[in-house]
Design a protein that fits this description.
Length: 139
């Protein structure tokens, strides 16, 4: 009985490890590590681009935005985020810095009261991860 429980726990740990490995492999370049662009985006934001891609789907950004690389993200309510890393301004007014990008993602209504983009309760870490992914979207 005790043995059976231990065996199940071990199998569970093995699965968790396999999932963690699969996750860390996502978004790698052909050499197996993150690409130069992904590394730079992570440095700029303190976030993790490959995680940001999943987080974007969780918050439903895709219903309003077209976002390259994010499955099903073909929304037309807001602007397409294609090439957003290369843009000079966010929402037509904020200089495109990592700090401003994270602020916009988390508190658009503070930056631009009345904007059609809602506040979605994005946490600080999720905001960093999302920004990290968006900074891989170069023109
Ligand atoms: C209900 C629709 C809606 C949702 C959901 C939404 N946005 Fe937006 N977003 C907009 C609109 C509209 C704008 C343009 C705002 C403006 O210019 O005032 C915008 C602007 C932006 C911009 C600036 C784009 C540019 O071209 O300057 C970014 C970046 C962005 N959104 C990211 C996100 C992220 C990340 C999420 C999910 C956490 C999200 N949005 C969720 C509607 C939405």
């Amino acid at each position: 009985m005790e043995l059976e429980r231990t065996r199940k726990a071990l199998a569970g740990a093995g699965l968790a490890l396999a999932l963690a490995l699969a996750g860390s492999l996502a978004g790698c370049d052909s050499n197996g590590g993150p690409s130069a662009i992904e590394k730079k985006a992570a440095e700029m934001t303190g976030g993790e681009p490959s995680r940001g891609k999943d987080v974007i789907r969780r918050y439903g950004c895709s219903s309003c935005h077209t976002i390259p690389g994010v499955e099903g993200a073909r929304g037309q309510v807001g602007p397409s985020l294609e090439g957003i890393a290369s843009r000079a301004y966010l929402a037509g007014k904020l200089p495109n810095t990592p700090e401003n990008m994270i602020k916009w993602i988390r508190e658009p209504q503070e930056v631009q009261p009345g904007t059609a983009m809602p506040e979605l309760g994005v946490t600080e870490q999720d905001g960093k991860d999302i920004a990290a992914y968006l900074y891989t979207l170069q023109q």
